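Supplementary Text 2. Reproducibility record for the structural model of the 548-residue chain.

All settings were left at their defaults, and a single model was retained for analysis rather than an ensemble. We include the record here because the model underlies the residue-level annotations in Supplementary Table 4.
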Amino acid sequence: MTLDQTGSTVVPIVPVVIVGAGPVGVTAALLLARRGVRTVVLERHHDVYPLPRAVATDDEVRRILQSAGVADAFAAIARPARGLRLLDGRHRLMGEFRRSPHGHHGFPETSMFDQPDLERLLRAELAQRPECELRGGAEVEGVEQLDDGRVRVTFRQDNVVRHLLAEYVLGCDGAGGLVRQAVGSVWEDLRFEERWTVIDVRTELPVRCWEGVDQVCDPDRPATFMRIGEDRYRWEFRLREGEELTPEKLRELVAPWVDIPHGFPHGSPHGSPDGFRVVRQSAYTFRARIADRWRRGRVFLLGDAAHLTPPFVGQGLCAGMRDAHNLSWKLAMVLQQGADERLLDTYERERKPHARHVIRLAVMTGWAMTGGQDRAAALRRTVVGAACRVPGVTTVLGRGLGRPLDKGPLTRRHRLRPGLGGTYCPQPWVAVEGRRVRLDDVLGDAFGVLTATEPTPSLRATAEGLGARLVDVRELGDDGTLAAWLRAGRADAVLLRPDRVVLDVLPAGGGHFTDPAAWAPLLCTTRRPAVPHGTQPVPASTPRSTTS
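Retained model, structure tokens:
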């Protein structure tokens, strides 16, 4: 640290400081980097956190990883899954939720992976971006909002207290992180809490599986099983009060799927003679909670810092990745293009209802499948089992995670005729200059306009004003997906946000978008962009904590 002539401490100014280098934090940094925004990511661990983490993702999150520049790298470590099966206590099939290998977003609807592998490839990509800096072993000790609106972040690294001055801070440091406390956020309890053990295994033994997820709906011993790699598997079991998982107990629990030879767990750690090695094991308490506020001033919460969901629908990590995707392009517009700061108010407004919806689905699944041993619980399981045997029901239920965003300034939806507003644009393969690529690779990182008719002057002016790529779907050489999607939504054209949500619609036969007066003031402004980076003396005024 140095002092200027006034005696003030000079600290680096960074557009965005991100606290937490898990997938959500690093993805946010990569998405911002692709838009020219410099970030510093602070992580208290020096390396990837080793305990069992997320193992499933959906096609929307794979599209987000595409936006972050790691689609091909992730494909190399991911394994498409067939879906979810509900089994009773005797492992008889109750219902099956099939997932397509070709989802709406252009990827398999469900993919299995090992989170440490994902974190390593994200960090490798981060290291290639000059806009990003990752500081490991950095324990954040304070987040203070100054009188001029900037945020001072204090952290300890190598036993030295250091400071950064940020235009914005993103808290991706988990449920118990300091940033959530700094925001002054409290949890809303959504009434679910259970203690489970999670076991990651590597084995060469023959395993009885269907290349999807098994959810065992047994009130006495609910369980989850899935294959996550060529020789990698995960089991999750609800624990009884005071129960310990001994080797004999583990053999008993996994017996429906694999026969472990006697002598387990003897053998070397690098492939035992038993052919069955526990890679990681940890006990977790699954909770359902959502933070009452996701922002204070220029400090935001993302991922587990903002919401916690039980794992029964595989959306814990997915929800956080959606947070990063939703906020990053808005933050970049404010910092780089001088967009109205009210644009950032739409982050919590859009993401919180969806996060709550996903948590409720997970809680409903947990209670219907595993919750309690009373008559009501038994009745719920019977009803769900019967419903899953009705043709088409599992297909409809499987779509519940991809609901449109609620109506707002950036999602124009009519209450009686919702149409395409607030929905996600499909992503087919398209042909461009003889190359076969995904749609988003054509549209780039900015806004986009898709049209199925000759562009009107108004359409061209809108595209030019937003720097949007104007694409005629009739010339894309896809399989007709986009033209059919526009016809079904009774639209001649759509305006797509950078996260590929439909911002506004040009109705069939119309000449103009439906409501530019609602969104244009947020996106188009002459306000000067924020200072990108540099150094500045910390003001002599006493900083105020974001908890005040």
